[in-house]
Amino acid sequence: MTAPDLDPVLLSRLADVAVHVGLNLQPGQDLVLTAPVDSLPLVREIAASAYRAGAGIVTPLLSDDDIARARFRNAADASFDRAPDWLYRGMAQAFDSGAARMAVAGADPMALAAEDPAKVSRANKANSLAYKPALEKISTFEINWTIAAYPTPGWARQVFPDLPEDEAILKLADAIFSASRVTGADPVAAWKDHNAALRARSGWLNAERFDALHFTGPGTDLVVGLAEGHEWHGGASEAQNGVTCNPNIPTEEVFTTPHAQRVDGTVRATKPLSYNGALIEEIEMRFENGRAVEARSGKGETVLHNMIDSDEGARRLGEVALVPYSSPISQTGLLFYNTLFDENAACHIAMGQCYSKCFLDGASLSDDQIAAQGGNSSIIHVDWMIGGPDTDIDGIRADGSRVPVFRNGEWAN
Amino acid sequence: MTAPDLDPVLLSRLADVAVHVGLNLQPGQDLVLTAPVDSLPLVREIAASAYRAGAGIVTPLLSDDDIARARFRNAADASFDRAPDWLYRGMAQAFDSGAARMAVAGADPMALAAEDPAKVSRANKANSLAYKPALEKISTFEINWTIAAYPTPGWARQVFPDLPEDEAILKLADAIFSASRVTGADPVAAWKDHNAALRARSGWLNAERFDALHFTGPGTDLVVGLAEGHEWHGGASEAQNGVTCNPNIPTEEVFTTPHAQRVDGTVRATKPLSYNGALIEEIEMRFENGRAVEARSGKGETVLHNMIDSDEGARRLGEVALVPYSSPISQTGLLFYNTLFDENAACHIAMGQCYSKCFLDGASLSDDQIAAQGGNSSIIHVDWMIGGPDTDIDGIRADGSRVPVFRNGEWAN
Ligand SMILES: [Zn+2]
Ligand SMILES: [Zn+2]
Ligand SMILES: [Zn+2]
Ligand SMILES: [Zn+2]
Predict the structure, then answer these.
(1) From the record, what ranges are coiled-coil (chains A, B) (predicted)?
(2) Residue A333 is assigned to a structural domain of this protein
(3) How many CB pairs below 8 Å do chains A and B form together?
(4) What are the residues whose beta carbon lies below 5 Å from ligand 2 (ion)?
(5) What residue ranges of chain A have pLDDT lower than 70?
(6) Are residues B275 and B362 in the same domain?
(7) Which positions of chain B have pLDDT values less than 50?
(8) How far apart are CA B20 and CA A411, in angstroms?
(9) Do B51 and A74 touch (CB under 8 A)?
(10) Which chain A residues are closer than 8 Å to B99 by Cβ?
(11) What's the A381 CA to ligand 2 centre distance in angstroms?
């Protein structure tokens, strides 16, 4: 099997956008790049673009679904609680030394669907624990980082199951290029405009300083309290190292930190969630005082329960994000089975770790201060989609008065 | 371009031989596996075999020639003195924690032939320095390790330039499978016999305890003093962690440590040397008191000079190895442009670092003691081939008497 060649101009532009807009890689800065081995054509373009931008050393770490499956099918039971600690520790050291971080998304979302969910969950937990010191440098925005996407065969088959593989890949490539805003002649200018639009939205929300958001829609009646001193972000963001980066290519969301103790009501997913190689469909949760006290799903309920039992913080929210139904990714009508795309097609919430960035003066806050202001902590951060064409959102002020934020899935103003 | 599928039975046997004979991987032991991305079909088999053998975590680190070239063509000048220190440091930590090490050889030997040799040499030196702490654990045999080979398209094109690529790959695969002794029904038994034969040769040399070897042949009249307390090895070897492994698949050599101050005379290469992506042909060196005081080559002389100028030890010998002209790899008549194969087709010497293993009770010797007994140290270890059909070797005893070791390229007894 050979994958079809993608448009070389668009592929090269996507690499340039990932390096210059996504990372804003600085001269002399190292880059740690994780990617599925199937995304090698993009990885090569990214490496070239990064070196042209003056990168110190680009270190690609390529993963392979077949090798992952070889583990689940053959390894001794004890192996599933292990992780390559030395590699994750090394990544944390690289970030400490100033390296930037890029991930290429696009691995087959169903790669591990046939494997034992208990083993997958244990392995994932072990990896999350080992990765925590490195991931914290990302979630606290110590360094500039970004995620971009590549249409691997496994992903394309999943998104377009009825098309021949080559056609599916090219169609997914079109969706990626378009959502990543590289189809126009000047992608950097397009991103500048897009970032300005997102900044206007987050600016309005920061000026309003709502105490909570009230989501209503089919199966959903949820009040999400916002953390004390929360700050909304969207688009470009300045990392603590002073570099302004775009952490997601594409991105359509504005997002902030909910209050881990002040989430109440019921909420129903509007899209399936692809997690750990399995699909969780028709999620419904009920929250009391911030904690998910009930969690059901039509499919993948074991995976869902394993996920929210990862640790105490896994049952509480670490992010709430607003995306209009008219956003370009939503308008494709596709389910991407990939958080980078699906979370940018709908309003969403995330179980688990919050971003300290989403607090006023967040970089100066200690973990205890963040927790005191309502910021959640966990080894996981899993977004799931709760917005659709019928979603209404009210902003609730501290005095109890209400302001329309979304009506019928769109910004109310 | 798609590479042809190799015989799945032989590929799986090669993986099993690499894991069980090469590494002798122990239950629960982690594995750090470096490989060219083009060798993915073998890497997948190795991962499965390692997990079946009870591996803890297998961490594949896949490299790509295109990315390497992207660096040399695009990177800022300062980048060529940099290396991913965090990754090499991590590998050393993995070995300290008990991980085994496997490398899959087979990258295109000419991958960097068109790049600036000065930049290639600087980058290689930076990598060698960063890798040194990890490499020392290999060169001192702290852990079990091995190298096996895979016929990548780039390598196959180089070995069989006149064949269509698919045919070249299949032919190189045949040579690898055959030299790696996996074509018979019981490869493990074949390796047991082969290891016994090599042990008989090294046993005789250890009983003789020669003071020096005298190589003569076309262009060669070289006396190689042997280190005090040197020990010959060949085939299977017990690492300090107690695991008996076969560090090279294939292997045909018996080898020991020369005396870094007692090598004198002239020596001519019998095969080209592929080094850092360039070809060095018709090497001639003259040694005085162990040091290469003259070094010429018909092609690649700049690369040769950069190599022996890597550090002070790079001009002295760290290994001398005996391989009969009738050995199976030699009999293929092929130049493999790959040390793993070419060094097992001819008697050879190596510039640079010695193996502490090649001393009696070597694991208990300090660096200073090894140096005092004549062991060389360097950031490089580069084998080059000096044996052929006309090679004669005399063993010289401490009393000056001589014993025929090789006559006309073959063992004299
Ligand atoms: Zn989000
Ligand atoms: Zn999120
Ligand atoms: Zn050797
Ligand atoms: Zn050697």
Answers:
(1) none
(2) yes
(3) 133
(4) A 319, 350, 383
(5) 1
(6) yes
(7) none
(8) 63
(9) yes
(10) 86
(11) 6
B268 CA distance to ligand 4 middle (Å): 17
Which pLDDT value is given to residue B363?
Answer: 85
How far apart CA A314 and CA A28 sit, in angstroms, is 38
> Domain tally for chain A?
2
The residue segments making up the domain with residue B31 are 8-179
Residues B222 and B138 in one domain: no
Q: Which ligand is nearest to the CA of B320?
A: 3
What's the pLDDT at B1?
52
The pLDDT tens digits for A58-100 are 999 999 999 999 999 999 999 999 999 999 999 999 999 999 9
Q: What distance in Å separates the CA atoms of residue B97 and residue A133, rounded to the nearest whole number? A: 19
Q: Are residues B84 and B127 in the same domain?
A: yes
Ligand nearest to the CA of B344: 3
**A57 to B67: CB separation less than 8 angstroms, yes or no:** no
Q: Which of A1, A43, A78 has the CB atom closest to B28's CB atom? A: A78
Please tell me the predicted confidence (pLDDT) of residue A140: 86
- Residue B2 in any domain: the answer is no
**Average pLDDT over all residues of chain B:** 95
Min Cα separation B294/chain A (Å): 35
A383 CA distance to ligand 1 middle (Å): 6
Question: Residue B253 CA: which ligand is closest?
Answer: 3
Name the pairing type of β-strands B381-385 and B392-396.
Answer: unpaired
Residue B383 lies in a domain: yes
Domain match, B343 and B387 both? yes
One domain, residues A219 and A90: no
Give the contacts of B215 (CB within 8 A, at least 6 positions apart): B221, B222, B223, B224, B267, B347, B386, B387, B391, B392, B393
Q: Does residue A195 fall inside a structural domain?
A: no
**What pLDDT, on the 0 to 100 scale, is given for residue B275?**
87
B217 and B135 inside one domain: no
* A65 to chain B: closest CA residue: B44
Domain co-membership, B111 together with B215: no
Q: Provide DSSP, A159-188.
A: H-TTS-HHHHHHHHHHHHHHHTT-SSS-HH
Sign of the four-CA dihedral B153, B159, B160, B161: positive
Query: Which residue, B161, B179, B197, sits at the end of a domain?
Result: B179
Give yes or no: residues A173 and A225 share one domain.
no
